[in-house]
Design a protein that fits this description.
Elements lengths: L2 H24 L9 E7 L3 E3 L2 E3 L3 E8 L3 H32 L5 H17 L4 H61 L8 H17 L2 E5 L5 E5 L3 E5 L2 E2 L2 E6 L2 E11 L2 E4 L8 H37 L19 E4 L10 E6 L10 E5 L4 E5 L4 E4 L10 E3 L2 E6 L8 E5 L24 E4 L9 E2 L3 E2 L14 E6 L4 E3 L7 E5 L2 E5 L5 E2 L4 E5 L2 E6 L7 E6 L7 H8 L6 H4 L3 H41 L3 H36 L1
Antiparallel strand pairs: 1-4, 2-3, 5-6, 6-7, 7-8, 9-10, 10-11, 12-19, 13-18, 14-15, 14-19, 15-16, 17-18, 20-30, 21-29, 22-29, 23-24, 23-30, 24-27, 25-26, 25-28, 28-29
Length: 653
């Protein structure tokens, strides 16, 4: 080959290198851009009698510097960081709501029970009754306002999920189009590929990982296969599959993620969609938002139920038995919309013991043989037995499950949410201050004619008293028999339990019951204490109370503030709320710490990847000078070739 051709090949190579270097410099700040470099190779040498003589150079490849292993690490770190940041932004809203010393639940709880104590000290006067009703209304309003805010956060989650799904679909379509373009332009070659399109595709996959963790596998013809969740394909070659933001089959107010396959859209298990904003928002809703709303509802239901129970054991200002103080919201039961259309199953879930409620939801599912109740918090399964129930409910965690049907199909399922509406639907049931049952339903007395020192306590009642309460016409008069040392006059047909020195003994109806100094006697739902030394014939009367000026039942309502009621008798209202605040606060702190650590890992991964693919402007500036000199040198070769050619021509003349 002539010297002119050799110089020309060098000129072209230097020009390509200059263009590539300029391309690097101008795209140094473009997200996802990978450094490129011209790789030169010698052309085939020409054989002569004196040996092989070089014929110049050629461009073997415009190489793209990118390490897929490092890129995969960046994608993983990006999915984790984006997910934790999204989780942190959401949970901080709940943390701020619950922990607020002004708008939180604690101040309203304290004000309510302070009003109960004022009522007790005021002997149930009219002003204190009005104050208690006002505090009760404030308390229910606080429950409702906090639940409303949690509901707004839930709506925000739905909006974010919808937006994430739309963004993922856009990325999937763009990646599929780039797969198509790259395949056509590279025509199966691994060297002659459109580097800039590869960068664009990698950047789209990086952006996709900000929404959901995606797995990338090389495909045919320089394409990439992208999958999410449990391997659901999102992009395969030139085909993009779509997700859908759809209503949950068991909760139409809840947006979940569906996978579109032809004409069918199938809900994806939320636990399989991890990482990125989408996966973390789903996790936040399940593990934090649902927990917070269910916990708040559980406190509201337990409080309403236990105060109502105590209210029923008292008398109001008019002498009537106490009515409900608060309304108790029922459990929510929803049917899966995909249940067999011929099934007619009906499920009722009734809260029978609020002290045993958990903060979990429950799935009720028919497996073809039995109905199973699955606690969602830990997947504990309880078989409904016997089935059919024949009208008898089965109690699980303080909830009575009752199932009735004539037609049922395997796979039919229902969602039971016992406490989700507890705070939003808790309301004040009393309409008048006179309805507050401050008084105890019984009153005890001792005639002035008694000769001994025997005393009887004020007495108390439990829920069994409501089955046969005393009336003005049916008082109980206990008489002491000095000869036998026994008490007589207990109601006919009722057992009597005597507790003395920590030991209890039950006497059947008609049995003689001894008098013991310091003993308590329980019968018909009533309990009275006896002390002293009565004389023969001394009597002790237990009668129906009038309800005027008595605040013993109000005092018992006030005692509920410090009584361990929730978590099977391990937590008060206040401590249950404090535990809820602590749980959310600890989770918020955990997410914050993990987000900081994940961000540091992302920075390290990006640095490692940039060391390979990043553009160093100092290096590129040096390359410009090098390639400029190579260009000038190649031009000089051509100039010399021209001079030689002219010399040869002049010799010919």
């Amino acid at each position: 080959m002539s010297l002119l051709s050799i110089g020309k090949s060098g000129l072209f190579a230097a020009q390509a290198a200059l263009s590539t270097t300029g391309h690097n410099i101008t795209n140094a700040n473009v997200a996802g851009y990978s450094r490129q470099a011209v790789v030169q190779a010698t052309t085939t040498a020409m054989q002569t009698s004196g040996g092989f003589i070089g014929t110049g150079t050629q461009i073997a490849q415009v190489k793209r510097y990118s390490d897929e292993f490092l890129n995969a690490q960046v994608r993983t770190a990006q999915a984790q960081t984006s997910g934790l940041e999204a989780y942190e932004a959401q949970i901080n809203q709940i943390d701020n709501l619950l922990a607020d010393s002004t708008s939180g639940l604690s101040p309203a709880l304290q004000d309510f029970f302070a009003s109960v104590q004022n009522l007790t000290g005021d002997r149930a006067g009219v002003p204190s009754r009005g104050s208690l009703l006002t505090s009760a209304e404030t308390l229910t309003a606080r429950f409702q306002s906090m639940d409303k805010r949690l509901g707004e956060i839930r709506e925000g989650v739905n909006t974010q999920l919808t937006a994430s799904v739309e963004t993922i679909n856009v990325y999937a379509n763009q990646i599929a189009k780039l797969n198509d373009q790259i395949g056509k332009l590279s025509a199966g070659s691994d060297l002659d590929v459109p580097n800039d399109l590869l960068d664009q595709r990698d950047q789209l996959i990086m952006e996709l990982n900000k929404q959901v963790k995606a797995t990338v596998v090389p495909g045919d013809n320089n394409s990439l296969t992208v999958s999410i969740g449990n391997g659901q394909p999102l992009v395969v070659g030139t085909t993009a599959y779509q997700l859908a933001a759809m209503q949950s089959p068991t909760d139409q107010t809840r947006i979940t993620v569906g996978y579109i396959n032809g004409a069918k859209t199938t809900p994806l298990p939320e636990s399989t969609l991890t990482g990125g904003a989408l996966g973390s928002v789903l996790e936040f809703r399940t593990k934090s938002l649902d927990l917070a709303q269910n916990s708040l509802g559980r406190i509201a239901i337990a409080m309403a139920t236990t105060i109502n129970d105590q209210q029923h054991l008292g008398l109001d200002a008019n002498g009537n038995p106490g009515a409900d103080f608060f309304t108790v919201p029922p459990a929510e039961v929803t049917k899966n919309v995909n249940n067999n259309i011929t099934s007619d199953t009906k499920i009722t879930a009734t809260i029978s013991d609020a002290t045993k409620l958990t903060t979990s939801d429950y799935k009720v599912e028919f497996d073809g043989t039995n109905y199973n109740v699955i606690r969602q918090s830990d997947n504990k399964k309880t078989v409904i037995s016997p089935f059919p129930q024949n009208g008898t409910a089965q109690t699980i965690d303080g909830i009575d499950f009752k199932i009735s049907n004539t037609k049922v199909a395997a796979g039919d399922n229902f969602l039971v949410r016992p406490t989700i509406n507890g705070a939003s639907n808790m309301k004040l049931a009393l309409t008048d201050q006179s309805q507050i049952a401050a008084a105890a339903p019984i009153a005890t007395s001792i005639p002035l004619t008694n000769k001994g020192t025997g005393k009887i306590s004020e007495g108390s009642v439990d829920k069994n008293y409501l089955a046969s309460p005393l009336t003005d016409a049916t008082p109980v008069t206990l008489t002491y028999d000095g000869t036998s040392g026994n008490l007589t006059g207990f109601p006919t047909g009722q057992t009597v339990t005597m507790t003395w020195n920590g030991e209890s003994k039950t006497y059947d109806p008609g049995e003689t019951v001894p008098f013991k100094d310091g003993a308590s006697y329980s019968f018909g739902g009533m309990t009275v204490g006896m002390t002293g030394k009565p004389a023969n014939g001394d009597t002790f009367k237990i009668a129906h109370n009038t309800g005027s000026g008595d605040t013993r039942n109000a005092s018992l309502i006030g005692d509920l503030q410090s009584k361990n009621i929730l978590d099977n008798g391990k937590a008060t209202y206040q401590s249950a709320y404090a535990n809820m605040v602590s749980t959310i606060g600890n989770k918020a702190r955990e997410v914050q710490v993990n987000a900081e650590a994940a961000n540091a890992q992302l920075q390290a991964a990006q640095t490692a990847a940039n060391n390979v693919s990043g553009v160093n402007l100092d290096e590129e500036a040096a390359n410009l000078l090098k390639y400029q000199q190579a260009y000038q040198a190649s031009g000089k070769v051509m100039q010399i070739a021209d001079t030689i050619f002219d010399t040869l021509l002049s010799i010919g003349h």
